[in-house]
Design goal:
Elements (H helix, E strand, L loop, with lengths): L2 H4 L1 E2 L21 H25 L3 E8 L5 H9 L7 E5 L5 H4 L5 H5 L7 E5 L4 H8 L5 H20 L2 E9 L2 H13 L11 H5 L2 H15 L6 E5 L3 H18 L11 H22 L1
Parallel strand pairs: 2-4, 2-5, 3-4, 5-6
Antiparallel strand pairs: 1-6
Helix pairs in contact: 2-11, 3-11, 6-10
């Protein structure tokens, strides 16, 4: 099965997250069974990232969105930690700073967008400005739909300049979220992740689901598609996302650039230097 085809939100498609099973795992029985494929996809990603960096003509923007404890950090740690940091970066979207508030809502996203040859991962993103603000009543519907349009225009601009965009919504259940909150409470190494808003925001779950459904419907385009990733099983989440990213990079037809120097001249210089070094060693003997 191609997860690019199976999990994509097609442009104009209606989304009902309650009808999508967050525990879906396709034909895979366990993490152990899926692990060889995950390793294979991550190796492909690493190889293709090298080509992307060397080619220097295109870029990739990966956007991760989820409800609290959805697994965004886990995706970054498991799938991207082996990549060359010289061509990969992560930006986490927290509450906007005073400087960011002084600009339009897309300013900080544009500022962090990938340069050519780079992969950038957004941990949360500009979509916070059509999700959280909507749920908390900080934006009216006319402005909300205007922001959808501005986001689509912004992402089209990036696409026209050589940036491929992949957007992943990590779909977990309320029960799984509560389980992960408990793990944070029980594990001292995860206590720092606990937020005072974790449980208060759970009361707004239906509002967040509706906000995500509308955002997915309004901003999944051919050049910047959304993928709904069943994420109750962390290993299936990693399997699906790594396959989609690797297949997308492969589709970009990345190639090593030709050398910018005369290789014959460089080889001659090398051999001359090697010969000179050999003479010096013989003299010292």
């Amino acid at each position: 099965m191609s997860y690019r085809k199976h999990l994509i939100v097609k442009p104009g498609e209606k989304v009902n997250l309650y009808k999508i099973d967050p525990s879906y795992k396709d034909k895979h029985e366990s993490h152990e069974k899926a692990l060889p494929k995950i390793v294979e996809h991550v190796a492909r990603m690493d190889k293709l990232q090298y080509l992307l960096y060397a080619d220097g003509n295109q870029s990739l923007l990966v956007i991760l969105q989820a409800l609290d404890a959805g697994g965004k950090d886990g995706v970054i740690r498991h799938l991207f930690s082996g990549m060359n940091p010289q061509g990969t970066s992560v930006f986490g979207f927290k509450q906007p700073s005073k400087d960011e508030i002084a600009h339009d809502f897309l300013w900080r996203a544009h500022l962090r967008s990938p340069s050519r040859g780079e992969i950038v991962i957004f941990n949360r993103s500009h979509y916070e400005d059509v999700l959280v603000v909507r749920v908390h009543g900080a934006i009216e519907k006319p402005e909300l739909y205007n922001r959808y349009k501005l986001i689509n225009d912004f992402e089209r601009l990036l696409s026209c300049n050589g940036t491929r965009i992949l957007k992943f919504f990590l779909h977990i259940s309320q029960e799984e979220q509560l389980t992960r909150f408990k793990q944070r409470l029980d594990d001292p190494a995860r206590n720092w992740k606990i937020s005072s808003s974790d449980y208060s925001e759970r009361k707004l779950w239906p509002d967040y689901i509706e906000a995500y459904e509308n955002a997915l419907e309004g901003t999944s385009t051919q050049h910047a598609p959304w993928y709904i990733i069943p994420a109750n099983h962390k290993w299936f989440r990693d399997l699906a996302i790594s396959e989609i990213i690797a297949d997308t990079l492969d589709e970009m037809n990345l190639k090593l650039p030709p050398p910018h120097v005369d290789l014959n001249e460089i080889r001659n210089n090398y051999h001359a230097a090697e010969f000179e070094q050999s003479k010096q060693l013989n003299k010292s003997c």
